[in-house]
User: What shape does this take?
Amino acid sequence: AVVEAGHTVLFTSATALIAALAKAEAEGQLADRLMFYAKPKLLIIDELGYLPFERRSAHLFFQLVARRYERGSLLITTNQLVTQWGAVFGDDVLAAAILDRLLHHSHTLMIQGDSYRLKQKRKAGLLGRVVPAAER
Assistant: This one.
């Protein structure tokens, strides 16, 4: 996690966040760790849905979202559509409860097209065109 400007912005990956919350829970320090993630004005969570959550992890994530709800901003990056979040969290009802809080007062941006990283590599000639299997 990177903390900037006196704990105003905190950036973490979703996997690091869940690992930290699970560790804190195992050590009896969950309330303190939730408070740590609740304090920043902006919490940035990167790569949500990259790996599916186990049931306990999904509940920990819900606790964080509920704690921050209408108290601090969240910026979440994901490659999963919100319609797929039931699979991400392993529970449609829990996903709906999380989305209910996240989408209230929110702005959603959908970025489509090639990956910026791959586009730069292709432009530099370091990566050829991807040939679909049907054309091989």
About this structure: The chain has a mean pLDDT of 88. Helices lie at 14-26, 30-38, 55-68, 85-89, 92-103, 116-123. The first helix runs from residue 14 to 26. Residues 38 and 67 are 7 Å apart (CA to CA).
